[in-house]
Amino acid sequence: MKVIGDLTGVRGAEMDEVVVEETIVVGSAVAGAEEATVVFAGSDVADENWVIPGSGVAAESERRVVVGFALTKKKVNSFMQPKLLSLARKKGIFFVEIDFNRPLSEQGPFDVILHKLTDEEWRHSLEGFQEEHPEVTVLDPPYAIQNVYNRKSMLEEVAALNLSNSYGKVGVPMQLVVTCDPSSIAMEVEKAGLAFPIVAKPLVIDGTAKGHELSLGFDQASLSLLDPPLVLQEFVNHGGVVFKVYIVGDAVKAVRRKSLPNVDRRNLGNTEGIIPFPRVSCAAAPADEANLEPGVAEFPPTALLESLAKELCCRLGLRLFNIDIIRKYGTRDQFYVIDINYFPGFGKMPEYEHIFTDFLLKLVPNKYMKHPACA
Ligand SMILES: O=P(O)(O)O[C@H]1[C@H](O)[C@@H](OP(=O)(O)O)[C@H](OP(=O)(O)O)[C@@H](OP(=O)(O)O)[C@H]1O
Ligand SMILES: Nc1ncnc2c1ncn2[C@@H]1O[C@H](COP(=O)(O)OP(=O)(O)O)[C@@H](O)[C@H]1O
Ligand SMILES: [Mg+2]
Ligand SMILES: [Mg+2]
């Protein structure tokens, strides 16, 4: 493949050195240079050679994957890590921060919009933009995200799926939404037949810490201390390990995290009250494999997670999420999904920079194609 000219000026083509099959091209080019297509490989992704289609070195915006992003500072810090940005650049993917002070339609052009903001104004402007630009992929559609911001609707598709195959069974713990007066909670719980201990979770996740203020209830009398609206979920003994299963399109990767220890139901009478607990399963709390019983530490079968993820991608209409799944203690293949998070902490997902950039390129295949010589 001929390479003519050099590579500067093609915004983002700041490679000092690219490998073009056995030829090393060193230098820089002026965008819009005469003929040629450029085949280049980012130095650390040598197995992926990409050709920029069409004649001439890319005229700037028409031959690059431009991802507009609207994220909180916290999310930018945890997600936009240097290793992601540099690999993305090598693959011709450019992240452009969306300016909230200008109409979305005056920005771009974008191939993809990546977002995780909860304010209504943003949602409204994004939905308007989506109508004008159906060609732009929105990760993910606001209506689908809203579904997992409510702890009732969040798990409904998992319950409806009721996945059961030779690898195992995946359900959701018995749960009850309470919006009533606190004094009536005990009666509602008794009517629903929920067993103690019970995990009390805010019904709505609003992006603030409040949406993660969970507590454990051990006896009926204490339930009147709770502050609806809540989801009350039966506590399932699971050996102190939760599996966080990250999903990026069709890529699935599980990690182990610390979780709440088993509760001995024979001692329930000795424990009472509502006990708040911290975010026990955050990244700072990986599950220490050494102290875990073998059956507890064992990851759920990959095939089970992959079929669960595939189904939920379709049913939830989401491509970027994770699932918190636990194994019922004492069983080998009885699993419960207890939480689903939209656009979670992908920065903690092993190999996320490769997984995420490959996913983005697959979203806009006509922008780049595998050069036949490299196929
Ligand atoms: O609801 P749970 O199951 O706790 O999941 C949380 C949320 O996904 C958080 O994202 P958000 O804050 O956007 O809701 C994420 O924080 P980051 O996005 O900062 O990574 C946490 O990452 P860890 O704290 O690393 O687990 C992850 O554990
Ligand atoms: N039904 C349950 N049974 C046992 N442990 C639970 C249950 N629900 C939550 N937990 C524990 O509480 C932690 C946080 O619950 P989760 O529903 O994931 O809320 P959050 O959205 O704040 O992560 C879980 O990682 C797990 O350790
Ligand atoms: Mg969780
Ligand atoms: Mg969550």
The CATH topology of the largest domain comes to D-amino Acid Aminotransferase, Chain A, domain 1
> Compute the gyration radius: what is it?
24 Å
Tell me the helix content: 10-25%
Shape: globular
Secondary-structure-derived class? alpha+beta
Which oligomeric state applies? single chain
Rounded to the nearest angstrom, the distance between the terminal CA atoms is 13 Å
How do the helices and strands follow one another from N- to C-terminus? EEEEEHHEEHEHHEEEHEEEEEEHHEEHE
For the biggest β-sheet, the strand order reads 9-10-19-18-15-16
Descriptive account of the structure:
- Kinase that can phosphorylate various inositol polyphosphate such as Ins(3,4,5,6)P4 or Ins(1,3,4)P3.
- Residues 164-369 form the ATP-grasp domain.
- Its cofactor is Mg(2+).
- It comes from Rhynchospora pubera.
- A six-stranded mixed sheet has the order 9-10-19-18-15-16. The chain has a five-stranded antiparallel sheet with strand order 11-14-12-13-17, with helices on one face.
- It contains nine helices and 20 strands.
- With 375 residues, it is of the alpha+beta class.
- Helix content is 22%, strand content 26%.
- The protein folds into two domains: 24-140 and 353-367, Rossmann fold (3-Layer(aba) Sandwich), CATH 3.40.50.11950; 147-342, D-amino Acid Aminotransferase, Chain A, domain 1.
- The chain has helices at 73-79, 82-90, 120-132, 142-148, 153-161, 185-192, 294-297, 302-316, 352-363; strands at 17-20, 23-26, 39-41, 49-51, 65-71, 93-97, 112-116, 137-139, 164-165, 168-171, 175-178, 198-202, 214-217, 230-234, 241-248, 251-258, 274-277, 320-327, 334-342, 369-370.
- Bound molecules: inositol-(1,3,4,5)-tetrakisphosphate, adenosine-5'-diphosphate and magnesium ion (MG) (2 copies).
- Residues 173, 199, 201, 212, 214, 233, 235-236, 238, 242, 259-260, 279-281, 324, 338-339 line the site of adenosine-5'-diphosphate.
